[in-house]
Amino acid sequence: MTPMTPLRQRMIQDMQIRNLSPRTIECYTYHVGCFAKHFSRSPELLGIDEVRAYQVYLVQQKQASWSSFNQAVCALRFLYGVTLKQSWPVVQIPFAKRPKTLPVVLGPDEVQRLLQCAKPLKPRVLLTTIYAAGLRLEEATHLEVRDIDSARMLLRVACGKGAKERLVPLSPRLLAELRAYWKVVRPTRWLFPGGTPDRPVSDTTVQKSCKRAAREAGLTKHVSPHVLRHSYATGLMESGVDLLTISRLLGHRSFATTMVYLHVRRPHLERTVSPLDMLPVDQCPRFADPAPVSPPPPRQRETPPVPESNEVPRSATESSAVPPVAESTEAPQSPRRVRRKRTDQPGSSGAARS
Question: Are strands 154-157 and 148-149 parallel, antiparallel or unpaired?
Fold first, then answer.
């Protein structure tokens, strides 16, 4: 076992004075130890340039996740800002922008298959408790027998994130599962004890059991115990529970954290009509190749009629010498009437001469 250095001991005491959770203390000391091991020197001899070089190493070579990257930033800021009290401002250690991803959600059928494949008894009941009450993994593993209030049908979550207690409804079906589990295991203090009765089951054991059950159930999604918590919140939202109640049941500090489940609820997405479905049918684009159209049959050339035996066809010279007479399209004119003078009228010149 590596002996604890005075700097490490002082940093742990600074975190204990501020009442940070044991999980946070363990995380900060781990990242500070990795930082010192990378340069093989004490952090007291390192400065802002080495901190920046270590951040580049985490991103380019180690390819750490952005959550782990930001945890290392928090640990180094606490070390240089609180424990060592450096003269340069710790805000020069930048945080990384985390990508905003939607949570993975399982349907009721998928949850049923997952719980049926979870073995042995302890991991199966623990995963059932996470899904029935919407707990975090650490909250479920640190449940005690006295936290179950069967008279009021409530479950007390004492080890909440940020040391915040809350009460969640106790499902009757979950209560029946816990009673059957208690008859077999007979826990004394911890509801889900580990290898020794005085310690709770480890998170790694539950995570491995969850992944094994997901593989046996044939689930292709990335399944973890926290996915059951997302499925719990989404199921409540789809059943009509208001957003404020869900935020209180999940123990969220910010109301905006709960609003992410608005993007994954199924009725909200099913009521949205695509503009493609609003187009007329004849204007929709074809995604499949149309059936091949057969080419039209070739047109046959018309043969001239064969003359009868008593008809003598014109010779080519005769037909070319005598031009055809064009028929007139004008209407026939009526004969012109000629008006004759009458000579027997009185006063005419002929009468005078006679």
Answer: antiparallel
Q: Answer yes or no: are the C-beta atoms of 80 and 49 closer than 8 Å.
A: no
Catalytic-role residue among 31, 124, 136, 142: 136
pLDDT, one tens digit per residue, over 7-48 is 999 999 999 999 998 889 999 999 999 999 999 999 999 999
Residue type, 40: S
**Mean model confidence pLDDT for the chain:** 84
> Cα separation of 84 and 77, whole Å?
10
Indicate if 136 belongs to the active site.
yes
299 is catalytic: no
The structural domain count of the chain equals: 2
Among residues 31, 77, 142, 229, the one annotated as catalytic is 229
263 labelled catalytic:
no
Q: Return the residue matching tokens 């009521």.
A: 271
Q: Catalytic site residue 252?
A: yes
Question: Which entry of 166, 211, 252, 265 is annotated as an active-site residue?
Answer: 252
**DSSP states of 243-291:** HHHHHHHHT-SSHHHHGGGGGT-HHHHHTPPPGGGGS-GGGSPP-SPPP
129 and 195 both lie in a single domain: yes
Give the total residue count for the chain.
Answer: 354
Q: Which residue in the list 38, 156, 161, 212 is annotated as catalytic? A: 161
290 is a domain residue: no
Q: For the segment 64-118, what is each residue's pLDDT rounded down to a tens digit?
A: 999 999 999 999 999 999 999 988 888 889 999 988 888 999 999 999 999 999 9
> Which of 207, 233, 268 lies at the terminal end of a domain, its last residue?
268
Higher per-residue pLDDT: 120 or 318: 120
Catalytic (active site) residue 38: no
* Token duo for residue 117: 């494949």
Task: Answer yes or no: 161 catalytic.
Answer: yes
For 206-222, the pLDDT digits (tens) are 999 999 999 999 999 99
Cα 209 to Cα 68, 139, 162, 183, distances in angstroms? 24, 17, 27, 22
Give the ranges where 118-252 is alpha helix by DSSP (H).
Answer: 121-133, 137-141, 172-185, 203-217, 225-238, 243-250
Residue ending a domain, choose from 242, 268, 294: 268
Tell me the whole-structure pTM to 2 decimals.
0.70
